[in-house]
Amino acid sequence: MSKKSFTLSKIATLCAVALSTSAFAEQAKDKDIERVSVYGQHHKNYITEQADSASKLGITIKETPQSISVVSRALMDDFSLDDINAVLESTPGVTVEQIETDRTYFKARGFDITNFQVDGLGIPQDGGDVHGTLDTSIYDRIEIVRGANGIMTGAGTPAATVNMVLKKPTYTTQASASASVGSWNKNRLEVDVSGALTDNHAMRAVVTKQRSDSYLDRYATDLTLGYIAYEGQLTDSTKVSVNYIRQSKDADSPLWGALPLFYDDGTATDFDVSTSTAADWSYWNNDNEHIFVELEQSLGTSWFIRARYAHMTNEQDSELFYVYGTPSAETGLGLTGYASEYDYKDQQNLYDLYATGDFSLFGQTHNLVFGVSSADMNYQDSSLYDYTTGNGFPAMPPLEDFEGNAPVPTLEDAYNGSKVEADQKSAYASARFKITEPLAILAGGRYTEWDSEGLSYGNSKVNSSEEFIPYIGAVYDFAENYTVYASYTETFAPQSEQDQTGMALDPITGESKELGIKAQLLDGQLFATFAIFDALQDGIALPDTALSTPDNTVYYAAEGINSDGYELELSGRLTDDLSASFSYSHVDIEAGDDVNEGKLVRDYTPEDQVKVALNYQVPVIEGLSLGANYRWQAKTSRVQSNGTIPTVTTQGAYGLLDLVATYQVTERISATFNVNNVTDEKYLHSLYWAQGYYGAPRHYAFSINWQL
User: Pick from 111, 126, 164: which is nearest to 562 by CA?
Assistant: First the structure.
C-alpha cells in the first residue's frame, strides 16, 4: 500500500509544546494532591458525574464545555435496554434509523453518527451504519458527547460520539444472573461474575445468550456473547488490563430492504405490522471478535502514561432477498425481487499512546493531555446477485399473501464487491487552563493524516488527505452550582469521489458551535443542562450530471447541511423515592440548493423530541419500584418520486410508553415485569430510505434477577 510518510515534524511540534508545558508538572507534586485510579463511577440513580469521552483530562461533565449524556447501568437494567439501539433511543437528541432488521443508522443534530469508541478508544468507520446489534450486557455505561469531537476521534461529523465503557474487574467478589422470558418466545440469560485472583490481580466474565422469534413473519435471532476482562497491578506504579469480546448473532429471514411506502396512485401503504419481504431461506449472520490491551504507568502522584492497542475483526455471511417496486393500489401486484449472497470481513488495528496529568502555574492547577494514535483498517466484501432467476417475480403476490416462499436462487451472475485499505495517523494535545478560580479555558488540536486505496463496487477509494482540527472552549462558574460554557471545534471526513480531472475531492469539512449552562440542583442530586448549538457540514460530493457519462460519474463539492437548535436535559434524584431523566431537543436543518438529499434530511429528521424515564420506590410496599420510559417525536415525512408524480410519505407524531415493575423478593432475588409500547402504537421505524417497516407492537417480558 502506497502511503504518504507521516509528518513527524508536525507531531513533534504538538508534543514539544505539550512537553514544555509539562515541565511545570513537578510543581503539582504537593502532599495534598493524590491521584486515584477510578474503575467505575458512583451512580446517583440516573446521574453520572464523570465522562472522559470528550477530553481524556479526567474532568467532570460539569467542567466540560459540551453536551454529554450518560446512560447508566441502572437505567439500562431498569428498562431492559439490552442493545445499543434501545440505549440510543433513550438518549437526548439522537434518532435511531432502523432501516432493516439488521442494519441501523444513528443520527444527531441532523448528521450521521460515525464516531464510536470502546473505553475511549476510537473505532473508525467508513459509514454510519451498524450491522447486527451491539449487546449492552458487557458495558458499565454509555457516554454520548453531542456535537463534534474531532480532537479525540479524528475523522467524523458534527453529530456525536458514542463511547461504550466496558465493565471492569472488581477486587471484591460479586456475581449476578438474570433469566427472562418474553413475547415471541424471547428467552435471555445473563451471568456476570467478578473477583480477585490475588491481591494484585482480578478478573471478570460475562456470558449472555438470547434466542427470540419476532412479531415479523419468519424473523428469528440467536445471539451469543462472551466477555472476559483481566486487570493486574504489575508494580506499585504499573497496571495492565486485557479485555476480550466475542459476539455472534445469527438472523433467520431478516429484512434486506423493507416494505414499499406507497401504491402506484400515490396513496400510502398500510400493511400489518408483521409483514415482511424476507424469504424463508434467507439469513444474515454477524460475528465480532475484539481484543483490547492497555498498559498504564504512573509518574509520580498526578501523571501517568497510557498505551492502548485493539484488534477488531467483524465478519458477515448472508443470503438475502430484496423486494422493490411500486405495487398496484387495486391488486397489490407489481413488486419484483432478487437474491444476493453477501460476505464481508473487516480488520482493524488501533493504537493510542498518551500522557496526562496536572501541573501548577501562576497559583492554579491545570490539566494536560498529549499523545499519538494510529488506525489501520481493511475490509473486503463480495456480492453475488441473482438477477437471472430473481427477477422472475413479475407476478409476485401482494405482500399480505407473501409467505417467504421465493425460489432458492441459483446465484450464477458475476461477483461484485470491495477491497479497501485505509490508514489514519494522528497527533493531539489538549489542556485545561484554570485562568481564575471560576474561569477555565480548554484548548487543543489534532493533526490527522488519512490514506486509503482500493475499489468498492467499481468506484475508486483512493484518497490522501491531511487536516488540523482545532478546539477551544471556556467554562465559567458564575455561582456555586451554576456554570456557563461555550465551545468551538471542527470536523473533517475524507471522501474518494473524483472530479472531472480524476482527482479525489477534498474532505467534507464541518464545524460545531455550542453555548450552554449546567447546574447541580437539589444538593447535587439533580444535574441540568441547557445547550444551544449550530453545526455545519460542507463540501459534500454530488454527481455532476452535465459531465457524467454512463461509464463514469463525475462529482463536485456542493454546499452542505446546516443545523441549529437547542437541548434541555435533567437527570438525577428528585426525591428520596423518585429518580428521573428528562430531555427535550429541537433542531432546524437547512441544506444547500444543490444537495438533492437536503430536503429529505430536513423532513425525515424529527424537529422535536421528548424523552422521559422515571423510577419510583413505592414507600408503602417495601421492595417495590415502578418505572416508566417514554419517547415522543414530532411528525416526519419524505418526498419521493412516483414516476412524474411526487409522493409524500408521512409518519405522524407518536409516543412510545414502556412500563416496568420490580419487586425485591429477598435480599438477593428480585423479579421484574416489563410492558413495552403499552398503547400498542403503530409506527414506521424510519423514513431514512424509500422503504420502511413497522416497530414492535405491545409486548411483555418477565425476568428473575439474582445478586450475590
Answer: 111
